Amino acid sequence: MSVDERILVVAAHPDDEVLGCGGTLARYRALGWPVRVVFLAEGVTARYQPEQFSLPEVVEKSARRNANALKALALLGVDADQVFLAKRPCCRLDQVPLLDLTKQIEAHIRDFRPTRLFTHSADDPNVDHGVTHRAMLPAVRPLPGQSLRAIFAFEVLSSTEWNPLKPFAPTVFTDISQTMELKVAAMAAYEDEMHPPPHPRSPEVLRALGHFRGAQAGMTYAEGFALIRGLNL
């Protein structure tokens, strides 16, 4: 692997980045690779009606989710100044002009010059996850001078697996045997999002998925990704 890699994560909501590639981010940061995480929406308001968004309870929960994102990513080694939070309401990205989202992603690509980008799967049934993927595609179109050498889609427990007719099929694996517990700890920082098993967002199921992906690649724990495009890998 190159020593000059730069990693950009484009995620819909805080916690998607940990579920999707938390172990990989921890591994990359241990190698000294710069990591930037960009969220396109906040992660709470889907549970409320628009007229409730300004209620103190909702504002506080959204603020706590954002604070938890900074804690989670700090555990993975990501610097706070490389975490970009958003105020767009959760599960309503389909109401935002796609061009606005694409331009936001393009701006980060120009500024950060990533070599690898991680984002949501095209077949994820969560509306914001699907929109994020679609907004990403034109932002990474292969133009001269493009910094990106690889673009990957990740899976998000309690979302991606809801599409049984198009199950997530990883083609690339990262060994996270040394960072699996960091991923679990980072997810635990999202205190409102963790649940007892058999809920998909439980420590037991996080480890189970990591163990299964690891078995697919001959290692103890792994994260699996679908390669969208790769250049000279």
TrEMBL record:
It holds the Pfam family PIG-L. One of its GO terms (molecular function) is hydrolase activity, acting on carbon-nitrogen (but not peptide) bonds, in linear amides. It comes from Insolitispirillum peregrinum. It comes from the Bacteria. This is N-acetylglucosaminyl deacetylase, LmbE family. PANTHER family: N-ACETYLGLUCOSAMINYL-PHOSPHATIDYLINOSITOL DE-N-ACETYLASE, N-ACETYLGLUCOSAMINYL-PHOSPHATIDYLINOSITOL DE-N-ACETYLASE-RELATED. InterPro entries: GlcNAc_PI_deacetylase-related (IPR003737), LmbE-like_dom_sf (IPR024078).
